[in-house]
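Ticket #4471: complex job returned nothing on first submit. Input attached below:
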Amino acid sequence: MIVAIMLLVIVIGSLVFNFLSPWWFTEIASNWGGIDFAVFVTFWICGVAFVLIGLFMVYTTWKYRRREGLTAVYEPENKRLEWILTIVTTIGVVGMLAPGLWVWDAYVNVPPQARDVEIVGQQWSWSYRLPGEDGYLGAVDARRISVDNPFGMDPDDPRGQDDVLIERAALHLPIDRPVKVLLRSKDVLHDFYVPEFRAKMDAVPGMITYMWFTPTRVGTYEVLCAELCGIGHHTMRGTVVVDTAEDYDAWLKTQATFAQISARPEGDPVAGQIAYAVCAACHGPAGEGMLAFNAPKLSGQDPWYLRHQILAYRQGLRGVHEQDTYGKEMAPMVLPLIDDAAVENVIAYIGTLPDDPAPQTVEGDIHRGASLYGGCTVCHGSEGGGSYGTFAPRVAGMTDWYLVRQLRNFREGIRGSHRMDNLGKQMGLMSRQLGDDEAINDVVAYINTMSTRMTRTAMHHTIDDRGETDGG
Amino acid sequence: MAVEAQVPYQEAIDVHHPHSWLARYWFSQDHKVIAIQYGITAIGVGLVALVLSGMMRLQLGFPDSFDFIDPEAYYQFITMHGMIMVIYLLTALLLGGFGNYLVPLMCGARDMVFPFVNMISYHVYFVSVLILLASYFVPGGPTGAGWTLYPPQAILTGTPGVDWGILTMLVSLAVFIVAFTMGGLNYVTTILQARTRGMSLMRMPLSIWGIFMATVLGLLAFPALFVSAVMMILDKTIGTSFFMPAISSLGEQLDYSGGSPLLFQHLFWFFGHPEVYIVALPAFGIVSDLISTHARKNIFGYRMMVWAIVAIGVLSFIVWAHHMYVSGMHPYFGFFFATTTLIIAVPTAIKVYNWTLTLLRANIHMTVPMLFSIAFVITFVVGGLTGLFLGNVIVDVPLSDTYFVVAHFHMVMGVSPILVIFGAIYHWYPKMTGKMLDDRIGQLHFWITFLGTYAIYYPMHYLGFVGVPRRYFANGEMAIIDESVILLNQGITIAALIVGVAQILFIWNLIYSYYRGRDSGPNPWKATTLEWQTPETPPRHGNWESRLPTVYRWAYDYSVPGAKDDFIPQSEPSAGEREGAPLA
Amino acid sequence: MAEATSTQRLQLVEDWAADVAVFRGVPWGKAMMWIFLLSDTFIFSCFLTSYMTVRMTSAEAWPNPSEVFALEAFGVPVPLLLIAIMTFILISSSGTMAMAVNMGYRRKRVGAALLMVVTALFGASFVGMQAFEWYKLIVEEGVRPWGNPMGAAQFGSCFFMITGFHGLHVSAGVVYLLIVAYRVWRGRYEEKGYDIVEITGLYWHFVDLVWVFIFAFFYLW
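Support reply: We reran it on our side without changes. The output follows.
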């Protein structure tokens, strides 16, 4: 008897859970209402089947439980009943399959007016490429991918010159215009997944996959990776912004094309030296960093990282959290760098400064730190030299008290809290491994041991160097 | 060819009569001992996987609370948990364990056709388990590539265990396949060629049908895994490029070129989908026998049940790419594979109807095996129906790689077969040991396991509807996640820990009852099938007396009108007018 | 006519549903070998299907087999010369194997054993020539599993993997043949009967058959 009651509880409980559940699909933001409809049909057909079978079992386990004088009926088969059930099931299956395939047909056939957008996945970030005015994406080759050419563009292909390259930043899409998404991957499998769009597709190295959708709701959406891609899988986030047509055009104008990026002049250290005068007040004349002013060492830091941080301050992605006292101090300081050229100049000047290891101020358990650092190795390198491939800055030989403070900020969500700052969010997720301040001290103490081992070549471990050493 | 002609009874007993402990329990060629060896090893390694799942749940429910779980460890947990549960526990226990135990007994044979090969099969399996567990002791630990081991990720930096773990995993799988092949050839040949007189295929108990079809699937599906394992080992060790295109990994250009990651996925799922049925079909078969026996009623629609098993087995080879709807394969495959996948739902649904219809107008004895069987049906209904979501190509798109998938496959091929295994152990333990398992501990174990697993996996589907992606070490701040989702995850973790700890009851019951259990007698459940009619309990080596039993009827003569008892054993001659089974 | 087919069909159903044995009169070992070969067929099918997929999707040019596998004979490169000889040898060995089976059933055990040894020698010479072919490819033509000077890297990987796997089958077969031949010669099967020779033969013919497919897909495509 208790069995029948429990089965009834399960059936009713499941129904109650379903109707009270706050957990359901997010509000849709694309044209794929058809997918929701197919889910709806499947859900109800299956739901009815579940309830009917469940209640039938409640009935049988109740009515035919062992009792005095009850004997089972000998009934090997009942052809008619079996056929009826087969036919009813078949009807149910067709009822689910038909709308499903109908929507799938729409899903795989891209409307001709759809515009191409390329999405490039890599461990562990998303980049994008738009075809530019000619409407064509230029040729790319995985073999050309390097620090200077992260998309692997073919410089000789005229169609690629006007391609808009958006590296590790937000993708904007205009509302109500269908896009054909072309996906590729530099390294392993990824999957471009925006829950609100419903659509989803793997990015596979060595081939180009596609899907299409039409954004239908203005807003900012989070991109997730839905195919296991290594230890940073859960940190591989991105942002898609759906704009009105006017906003989209305004945004597009600010984006650089491949030709513009290639033609960008190298920074002028002489001009940079003048601009650096402002920085020197806190960061020191030789960029060595000063604890008294809470300013970290700049010399020896990777130029792409400096550029990214200056831009993050300028765009309001960093230095905006109310508890980030020093970040807020820094934010206005980048304003004198009025354009990209000024930024390049100052970075070029920092590149000329002597790179002496910063003094060591943090103490901790080096052995524990070494084991904690295990998780950092993949991105920051076993010698802490940083890597452009994972967009991880150099940490060895830099100001250790600054690392401690930033790790704490990351962990507590003070840094990397801006919803568009996906790289900051990434570090935030990883830093939570360091459970307490002691762990942070330990790991930084271990990093300090690297700076003594460090050599100049290890620091500037560029892709070209590695290619040679590994290929040879 | 008569059985006696091939293994003369006296010779079989004299030659193989074991004396020392080692010969009796380790180098035994008795299928029953080998079955128990398989069973104990599989349950042992399964407990390891259970602990791993507990740690995963701790991390998911309470992220950032446990120092020893970092992303690396977490991905190692999920990989080892998945692989152990699917291959080393479920496949090994259902086929190596129950297959070995039941096939000769239920078919009325003295042993497997090649007992020596059978013994070697277990030893090779044991080696594969050792290699697998060695993963935890090699530099870098086990692989964290997920149980699907998708390249390029599985063999590139950025994935845990990329130096040694992936190799021990692949080698262990290859060794397992060798073990499985040796065992599987035995099961199939025994079922085809060594049944006793009167045991026609259409009189075989459904357990044997399920095991038979599953073994055939295994023999034809494992080759694909073997081949993909060989190719991946070559990619990893000597730098071939079967699955590896040109890659720039973590900013570094690699030497690979021209390979296809999708090729691996096709090979893997050509194995992987039949693998689902390798686990499910024996469970289907066994549960049919449990339901019929404990409901004291013949299984409803036996003939349909047999054909459904065969149809599911055949169809399972043409549905594999439904695991790959969003993998980037040619989208037109979606039409074909969605259709075949939903067709497979029809024979599966028929099986469910027939189980429930067997309960109709029955005389249901609520024994522990029956409880597990009923729990299986309801769990399988949920798991099967959610399979229709994922099989229906467009519905799969928003749900693939979310927790909906995790909930679905745990319901359908995790919890369901495990419930059957529990039921089967409660059912056949008396035959294996001559003792009954303790009923009260059994009831307690059942209710915690059944309600607990339902509480874990039913709500988990809703995480999938929300869109929470699977295989995330931590969700962190995610736009689609609010407080309620975090709460739900905590609830699931608590349920999972309770269920995990409750399994101690089961282990305790196995050990306690072995020494203190009630004597069972030869046929405590009053069952019809041959294994309950052996002259001794537990059956001796050679199973039968000098003559093999003769079968006169199908396996489901329960509550036959006019019969003396409510069951008639298969080996009991009929009075005359009911010669043979109605279906023979 | 219609009746005849329906009784035939019934016969099939009855055979399969028969009690005791589905395949009447087939010894256990033989049934098991057939099932094993079915499983092994799937292994080779997977290998060959993978090879075909890799070859068809390869972006780089595939080396021309008639040039790669050519052998100098009297100063003239003859395409596929070595392979032709190897194939001929292997097919001949199937012939001697069939004769051995025949001898076995006629209970001429010395003859059967001798023919099996001859088969094994054919097999061994096949493996030897394969070793020579590998040597030539690796040392003279610079083909490696991970690359080659002629084109797609997958050429070498597929070739070495599949011919290597087949070569392992042949080597195992040679050992298997020699063991069985020795036992046949010693008269071990006088009582049990000579089914074992046929079972060994099944395996050997299977290995030959697989070679035909490998030959067709690798050397002629």
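The first strand of chain C starts at residue 71 and ends at 73. Closing as resolved unless it happens again.
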